[in-house]
Amino acid sequence: MLFAPNLPPLPPITDPILLQDCTALAEWIRKGKRSAEQVVSAYIQRAKAVNVSLNAMVDDRYEAAVREAREVDRILATLTETQREALKETKPLLGVPFTCKEVVMMQGMNHTGGLVTRKGIKANVDAEANTRLKQAGAIAIGVTNVPEIGIWCETTSTLYGRSNNPYDFTRTPGGSSGGESSLLSGCGTPLSVGSDVGGSIRMPAYFTGTFGHKPSPEWVSLINGAMFPEKVKNSRVLAIGPLCRSARDLTLTLEVMAPLKAKGLRSKVDKTNLSKVKIWWAEGLDTPIVSPTNAAQKKALKEAVTYLNQAYGARTERSDAWLSWEWLRFWCGFGRFTFGLLMMATVQKLSKVKEEPKNSPHYWKNKKKMLIDKLGSNSVLIIPMLPRHYYHNEILTNALDVSHTALFNATEMPGSAVPLGLDNEGMPLGVQVVALPDDDHLCMAVAEALEKKFGGWISPSPIAVK
Predict the structure, then answer these.
(1) Beta strand 191-196 with 156-157: parallel, antiparallel or unpaired?
(2) CA 112 from chain center: how many Å?
(3) What global pTM score does this model have?
(4) d(CA 333, CA 353)
(5) pLDDT tens digit string along 393-450?
(6) Domain named Amidase: which ranges (predicted)?
(7) Which entry of 41, 163, 176, 403 is annotated as an active-site residue?
(8) Distances (CA, A) of 194 to 100, 204, 438
(9) Catalytic residue list contains 374
(10) Which candidate, 431, 400, 451, places its Cα nearest to that of 280?
(11) How large a percentage of the chain has pLDDT more than 90?
């Protein structure tokens, strides 16, 4: 493992609180195994410790968070055991700390988008997604680093500097939710709120070995959730969603963040019969304009598909032939634009491209229909999120590699990032699981199945819990 000069390695994890997911933390607090103050304080201390090397947290509300945690404990002390248990339904995240990327508004916290020209600007309200989490009892502890305006896949800005990958400080944690993914994997927060216009949830989750989910369009409210113009917000390519350290937390947090669309999501995931689900898979995008998937990623992907077939009886079929160059060039706007500030694959959708009339087979809506028709109902596609890991700034010369994720923003399909262990360099392996619009439960059912086999998130820090 390579460390950047003058940065100390992440300290060992000595407190078991830091190894629990949100589901477990909420249960510990309800049942009095740990107080909300203990949980929030543990994450604050950890966030301070790891931020020295990760440069992830850029503004905090630590003192206010501790006060709010004490108030939670005061209220819990007045309740009976039955009343406490009822909080599982009414306040499922009571006492659980969370963070969000800096472009997603958190009241009182920096809201600059990493721009020097906006230095000192604070959010005067919460994004609706954050409001939902707070209403469920979650306690905000701060906001994290983003690239400028949140439009790049490397988390760095002139205002805040560069965030580092907790597994190797010389590598990128991705973007634009890279501050969130870095802090989450380093155990500085148990729950992260990200946004995704071209892979900005799924890519960082892959780089840092965590789970992330880009929901179907209109599942999670975008109100005060990004700094993009209304054209982008209305295009259905942008989504707000969670990053977590367990697959089950994706379901829990989405039920909170998307109370209408995700109502009953836990039940739908539990009832999913994977033997009835068709598993399409591909090793990459089968085009010369993106990097080939490396051997370790290919091996992990094939092992995941084989496991789903052998353990659950899922039907599997390779799909490379129809994820072809002819499709990708139109989604990317390749040859028409010099650089995709809106993440390549969304350019055609967000622009008025005259070359492709609506009756053309290459018009994006027709491409979306072709893809959906090919996948068919009750099916998912398993495909790499990116071909490999990148050192800082290296992705500048491999920008079209983000087409692996941006393609599914353009086609409005939900996708989950699922970790699959570590490679021989100690870097996370992973895949994205993509489904048809509003079939988010299939992504999560597959994610939970793969977590059982491959172990999910693996700590980048030594664990010294007694």
Answers:
(1) unpaired
(2) 21
(3) 0.93
(4) 9
(5) 998 889 889 889 988 888 899 999 999 999 999 999 999 999 999 999 999 999 999 9
(6) 39-261
(7) 176
(8) 6, 10, 19
(9) no
(10) 431
(11) 77
264 close to 366: Cβ distance less than 8 angstroms: no
Q: Is the pLDDT of residue 2 over 60?
A: no
Q: What pLDDT is recorded for position 358?
A: 64
pLDDT in tens, 15-38: 999 999 999 999 999 999 999 999
| Dihedral, CA of residue 242, residue 147, residue 189 and residue 74, to nearest 10 | -90
User: How far is it, in rounded angstroms, from Cα 129 to Cα 322?
Assistant: 36
Q: How many CA atoms lie within 13 A of 379 on its CB side?
A: 17
Query: What mean pLDDT is predicted for residues 459-463?
Result: 98
Q: Is 422 helix (H, G, I), strand (E, B) or coil?
A: strand
Q: How far is CA 276 from the centre of its chain?
A: 27
185 touches 208 (CB < 8 A): yes
The backbone torsions φ and ψ at residue 34, rounded to the nearest 5 degrees and listed phi first, read -140, 150
Cβ(64)–Cβ(56) below 8 Å: no
Residue 261 falls in the annotated catalytic set = no
Q: What is the DSSP string of 267-331?
A: HHHHH--GGGSEEEE-SS---TTSPPPPHHHHHHHHHHHHHHHHHH--EEEE-GGGS-HHHHHHH
Q: At what angle do helices 36-54 and 22-31 cross, to 10 degrees?
A: 150
How many other CB atoms are found less than 10 A from the CB of residue 2?
11
Q: Closest Cα partner for 401 from 250, 203, 269? A: 203
- pLDDT confidence of 95, banded at 50, 70, 90? very high
In this predicted model, what pLDDT tens digit does every residue of 114-149 receive, in sequence order? 999 999 999 999 999 999 999 999 999 999 999 998
Per annotation, catalytic residue among 101, 214, 349, 367 = 101
Residue type, 374: K
Query: Would you give the end-to-end CA distance of the chain in angstroms?
Result: 26
CB 351 within 8 A of CB 333: yes
Better-scored residue on pLDDT, 78 or 365: 78
With tokens 């893809």, the residue in question is 371
CA distances from 22 to 17, 244, 255, 366 (A): 10, 8, 13, 40
Residue 290 phi, psi dihedral angles, 5° rounding:
-120, 160
Determine the Cα–Cα distance for residues 97 and 25; give it in Å rounded to an integer.
9
**In the predicted model, what is the mean pLDDT of the chain?**
90
DSSP letters for 441-459: HHHHHHHHHHHHHH-S---
From the number of C-beta atoms within 10 Å of its C-beta (0-12, 13-18, 19+), residue 462 rates as exposed
For residue range 249-262, list pLDDT tens digits in order.
Answer: 999 999 999 999 99
* CATH superfamily entry for domain 16-454: Amidase signature (AS) domain (3.90.1300.10)
Question: Cis ω on the peptide bond leading into residue 176 (within 30° of 0)?
Answer: yes
Question: Is 275 among the residues known to form the active site?
Answer: no
- Residue 267's SS3 state is helix
Tokens of 47: 């966030």
